[in-house]
Amino acid sequence: MLANVLLGITLGFAAGISPGPMLALVITRSLEKGFGSGLRVAIAPLFSDLPIVLGSVLLATTLPAWTLHALAIAGGVFLVFLGIEQIIRARRASLAQPGGQRAAEDLTQAVLVNLLNPHPWLFWFTVGGPIVVGAWALSPWNGTSFLASFYLLLVGSKILLAWLIAKGRNWLSSRRYQMVLQACGVMLVIVGILLVWRP
User: Fold this and answer.
1) In degrees rounded to 5, what are phi and psi of residue 45?
2) What is the three-class DSSP state of 70?
3) Can you say how many angstroms the Cα of residue 167 is from the centroid of all Cα atoms in its chain?
């Protein structure tokens, strides 16, 4: 069991701090609207990963190869849209009056980004799924301990990052704040394009 916990901690932390769509969105929302918004984005995998995990365990050998590519294209287009929207909104952003997007929209957007991001699918189909199946074969507790430790570090590292960024936004001038938000928007667009054009 300890080996599964350590494996979950290692993989969860690596996934939590790896550059990608979710990390970009955590940074953007934490800068734009503070810790609460970053927190809602950070916990999105707890809501969106269930079908991914179940699908990887049950259907890993039956889905056609084009599925991940289709997810990459859809996710990339969505990220480009979010990035362009971010760049436009950043011109009018104010530290005194953060963006007015509702809390539910933060979580909804983050869940969509995660579901359309091929990286979780690829991870669970190729790495996480086989680990869960193997651990569960030993005992349900082994499988559960891997999943719990993985998500504790995956979500926990993003929450910590959101908190650090939200605290740091208080040191920015309004102009620098707008420039950082625009840079985050550009980052979302670039990540989206890379997802679409990735071979």
Assistant:
1) -60, -25
2) helix
3) 20
pLDDT averaged over 10-residue windows placed end to end, the chain, 199 residues: 85 78 85 88 91 75 65 74 81 57 76 83 77 83 92 94 84 73 79 72
Amino acid at 116: L
CB contact set of 97 (below 8 Å; sequence gap of 6+): none
| Rounded distance between C-alpha atoms, residue 22 and residue 187, angstroms | 12
* Tokens encoding 44: 């999105």
Is 108 exposed, middle or buried (CB count within 10 Å of its CB: 0-12, 13-18, 19+)? middle
Mean per-residue pLDDT over the chain, rounded: 80
Ordered by start, the domain boundaries in the chain are 2-57+64-197
